[in-house]
Amino acid sequence: MLAPVNIDKDLVAAMATPLVLAILAEGTSYGYAILKRVRDASAGEVQWTDGMLYPLLHRLERLGYLVTEWGVSDEGRRRRYYRITPAGEAQLADQRRQWETATRTLGGIWGRTLPAMGV
Amino acid sequence: MTTPNKRTDDTELLHRLLDEAFAPYPVTSETLDLKQEVRGNLTARTAELVAEGTTPADAARRAIAELGDVGILLGETPTDAPIATESWVAEQRRNRVRPKPAYAVRTALLAGLLAAVILVLKFEVFGLLTVAPTLSIAAIPVAAALVGWIVTDALRQETTQNYPFSRPTAIAFGVAAALLTVGLGAVLQTVLKFDVLWILIAGGAVVASIILFTYLGVTSTNRRKPWATRLMNANGNVPNAFDNDQATAARFGIYTAGIFTLAFAVFIVLTVTIGWGWSWLALVGGFVLMLLVLARMLFPPAKS
């Protein structure tokens, strides 16, 4: 079992946008569900707070990559939902190409293939 | 089945902590929207922590701590200048919380019962009524229970300016008020028929009540609603030492317990030696000394 990884904050910041856009590309979601998806996808190694997520969501909305709409939760409370836009999907595709290039380059230099790393 | 709006004591804690976190920031539609969104997240996070074994109160505090700086969420800094002032009257009207009808009826009935008990005891003291000693003694715990119930019920109600106390804290305040009532009832019994035992009961009950009230006063969290806090700060609310330093408040509580323990001891000695005529001065002296200590500790003189 691998030891927990302490991810550099610059790396966390860099992957934040493609991570959120990728989660919204799976389907419309809301704040807490996005945080939980990040935590589950990273097996608990990446844990975001509301303070990290919401400024990012506001920025992505200003850039036109997502839109928000109010709905109602199962408990009857108002809840804000986030949905990716076509511009957001284009940005996600571009970010994905960049990350695939970066991880392929690193994997080549480190001498390990991506599947062997479990990525 | 729990209705969406029913709040337990611990969800009240979560909502109060969230209100306090947003209190320094201007109230705008954007702030309110974000607050509502964050409230849902925090509720879900708290439930998740509770499912993992954390106590509800600790889960609420941890969820709020994970929220981080609300200013970062809003992209703002807290405003130090007084918020554009709305008058107290306008804010009271806007935030008005009406008493629940059931609470009003309950209080009226309990207060009526308490008044009847007090009247009977009063008539007995002034010789207008003869009451069997057993009934006269039984009236004390009855009155204490009624007072405790009224106090607990009152503190569990939300008002325009304050959130309700949690159930355990409200019950503790009720117990303290009941102890004080027992002390006063014991003093009444002493007036009817002098007995050192009743004096000891009176002293013990009153001192215990003071200690409990002081402990609760020091450890209770702030119940004031953010709008009231904001207006009080904007209107130049004078800060005191107890607001800024809980240790000072705790010291005052200990001094008060010591002062009244001494006052009751002197009262007992004087009553036994020289009689009722002058012994009550010991209690008056203890009360005056407590006020002087309170003034000195609450508003200490400025250091040069």
Summarize the structure.
The complex is a heterodimer of chains A (119) and B (304). Chain A has helices at residues 9-26, 31-41, 50-62, 86-110; strands at residues 29-30, 66-72, 78-84.
Overall description:
The complex is a heterodimer of chains A (119) and B (304). With 119 residues, chain A is α+β, with helices and mostly antiparallel strands. Chain A is 56% helix and 13% strand. Chain A contains four helices and three strands; from the N terminus they run αβααββα. Chain A has helices at residues 9-26, 31-41, 50-62, 86-110, and strands spanning 29-30, 66-72, 78-84. In chain A, strand 2 (66-72) and strand 3 form a beta hairpin. In chain A, helix 1 (9-26) packs across helix 4 (86-110). Chain A is globular. Chain B is mainly α and 304 residues long. Chain B contains 14 helices and no strands. Chain B starts with 8 loop residues before the first helix and ends in a 6-residue tail after the last helix. The model of chain B is unreliable at 1-7 and 77-85 (pLDDT under 50). In chain B, helix 6 (101-125) packs antiparallel against helix 7. At the A-B interface, helix 2, helix 3 and strand 3 of A face helix 2 of B.
Q: Count of helices of chain A?
A: 4
The succession of helices and strands of chain A, N to C, reads HEHHEEH
The secondary structure category of chain B is mainly alpha
Using the CA coordinates, give the radius of gyration of chain A: 16 Å
- Low-pLDDT residue intervals, each spanning 5 or more residues of chain B: 1-7, 77-85
Count of β-strands of chain B: 0
Average pLDDT level of chain B: 79
CATH 4th-level superfamily of chain A: Winged helix-like DNA-binding domain superfamily/Winged helix DNA-binding domain
Question: What strand line-up does the widest sheet of chain A have?
Answer: 1-3-2
Helix content of chain B: over 70%
The coarse overall form of chain A would be globular
Distance between the termini of chain A: 15 Å
Low-confidence stretches of chain A: none
Q: SSE string of chain B, helix = H, strand = E?
A: HHHHHHHHHHHHHH
Helical run tally of chain B? 14
- Rounded to the nearest angstrom, the radius of gyration of chain B is 24 Å
Oligomer: heterodimer
Helix content of chain A: 55-70%
Largest interface: A-B, 18 and 19 residues
